[in-house]
Specification:
The protein has 281 residues and is mainly beta. The protein is 8% helix and 46% strand.
Length: 281
Amino acid sequence: MRRHRRKSRLGAVVAVLSSLSATPLAAAEVPLPDGETTRAGGVTARLVDPTDRYDHGVLGDAIEAGGMEVEIGGRVHHLRLGPDRVFEDLRVRLVDLDGDGAPEALVIETDLKHGTALAAYRLSDRGIEPLATSEPTGQPHRWLNPVGVADFAGTGTPLAAAVVTPHVAGSLRFYRLQGKTLAEVGRLDGVTDHIAGTRNLDLSCIVDADGDGVADVVLPSRDRTALVAVSFAGGKAVERRRSPVSGRISALACRGGAATASLDDGRRVVVDLRTGAVSSP
């Protein structure tokens, strides 16, 4: 039902754009329905140009974004993808990927033939410029979902993390910016950070789960029946702890040394990230 409603909304968007044929492009940009606006470091960003040219629907509908809009210093800049690509995403993540203190844009970018990659764009007064991409998943309908950016190795260098094919292999991968590439530097399989057909992109946490002073990734096992803490300290992905829960995890929130997991049946459990102990709130 939701899919049809959003398709109808796309039709209305097309009608509006047709009526604005004489309006400059910047004034005619349309935001992605149900997309998010993000802000960091004096930058405001959102996904725009809704399109149904890609038929995956991994986020629960047939509408993806064909472009990005960024406001910097009171000026608005646009980037529009070609007809063979979409942002298969809901938000622009504003993160410092190169360690220069200014945010870059990190997004899920999909090529209609070659699959999905993690894509980074440099943002400045000049506009939006491609910075780096990861290796694509290799075929259509194979997606990835970012976890985020942190100093996961404990070396002072920011790394990006994402789960590649969270509904298939569930491969948590870590990436370092190397020239124009987000190069994979480690992985651990058998986990997930997304449920197919849903709009929750946040089924993971970045937190120091083992108390060593280095950021870890906490997320469900591939079947969502356990909470897994993964460390990349020292440059190697290692499962530090696995805490089975009495159901399937559908939502996750971390605070301090604890993670609260909502389960499919409506119950909640709290996992002590230091000990792995599971209790009811």
